[in-house]
Amino acid sequence: MNFLTLTSPLDMHLHLRQEAMLQAVAPLSAETFAGAVIMPNLVPPVDSLERVHSYREEILQACGRDDFDPYMALFFRNYTREELEAAREHIIGIKLYPAGITTNSEGGVSQIEEAEPTMRLMEELGIPLHVHGETNGFVMDREAEFLWVYRHLAKTFPKLKIIMEHITTAAAVELLDEYENLHATVTVQHLLITLDDVAGGMLNPHLFCKPIAKRPEDRTALANAALRAHPKLSFGSDSAPHPVHKKECCGCAAGVFTAPIALQILAGFFDQNNALDKLQAFVSDNACRIYGVTPPKKTVKLENKPFSIPAKYGDVVPMWAGQEIPWSVAEIS
Ligand code: DOR
Ligand code: ZN
Q1: Strand 307-308 to 324-325 pairing
Q2: Which of 51, 119, 151, 219 sits in a 20 to 30 Å window from 144, CA-based?
Q3: Which residues contact 105 (CB under 8 A, 6 or more apart)?
Q4: Ligand 1 site residues, Cβ closer than 6 angstroms
Q5: What pLDDT, in 10s, does the model give residues 5-43?
Q6: Active-site residue numbers?
Q7: What is the mean pLDDT of the chain?
Q8: How far apart are CA 97 and CA 143, in angstroms?
Q9: What's the gap between Cα 145 and its chain centre?
Q10: How far is CA 272 from CA 189, 247, 326, 327, 330, in A?
């Protein structure tokens, strides 16, 4: 197949930042995606309805178009019933970060039990819970060590929709089928790279993210789930831009920037695995069903024609900068 047309692609996990960075990256996502779940880990975090409204306005202004819907997420803290009732219609869910686990998560949750009263309310009000599922243990084991928390929450709150964000292990893929209320997102990098690509040879800071890429067998399990468009799995890029000086330095910030190249890379990957017919479900249909969203209509025509990934987008170096990939965007309407 030389062409593939996707309808209303969605990115169910995206970092857009603020100010100049927001102005630079928001239009790039809005070009090829019809909607995205916007992460609230700003400084200070997006943890009130007022902030949800103002941040959404800033995003729409930065995009300058009406065919991209930012699905807003609140930063998890303990909320009152009144706050949640007021916020419910304006958010897609609430994102829980364990305290200090990643960029701007210092105000996150330290004890999961303390979060449970709010989770009970969310369950009752039908507000999904998005989770960065890592402990602060040994870096390769952090997701595995967190899985008991997912099990515990899935059992304790059977009606709470729980999204395991950016899963990176075979064990997390298996967990998806154990509890009806568990869902997941997966990034493009975790489908394609392992720890070897990050640190096995020359260190590649542009592939360093949290959770860190894992073992070949984990990548295989994630790839198999994505390539068959596992019905509880959606694409979430976790595209997380940092300026080049924060990446190419000692103390490299975590985050891989993929937003403008994600669909092209995914098309190549699905094509290579004879699964192009599953890409629409993986990048849009599953998400529409899981999150109950109806995105703006947008068609993205991809072509089996080489594309050179730019060295930089503004001040941000993307994944695989300078490399040629087999698929490109031909037309957007
Ligand atoms: O690599 C990451 N970067 N992982 C996260 O969880 C946060 C993100 C960011 O905001 O930079
Ligand atoms: Zn993220």
Answers
A1: antiparallel
A2: 119
A3: 41, 97, 98, 99, 132
A4: 15, 41, 102-103, 132, 209-210, 240, 254-255
A5: 999 999 999 999 999 999 999 999 999 999 999 999 999
A6: 238
A7: 98
A8: 13
A9: 21
A10: 16, 31, 10, 11, 19
Distance 305 CA to ligand 2 centre (A): 30
Residue 1 reports pLDDT greater than 90: no
Query: Treating both helix axes as pointing N-terminal to C-terminal, what angle do 19-32 and 49-63 enclose, rounded to 10 degrees?
Result: 70
Percent of the chain with pLDDT over 90: 99
Q: Which two tokens stand for residue 220?
A: 């295989």
Nearest CA to ligand 1 atom 10: 103
Rounded (to 5) percent helix, strand, coil in the chain? 40, 20, 40
Q: Which domains does the chain have, with CATH numbers?
A: 3-332 (3.20.20.140)
For a mutational test of ligand 1's pocket, the pick from 238, 256, 316, 317, i.e. the residue with the most ligand atoms closer than 8 A to its C-beta, is 238
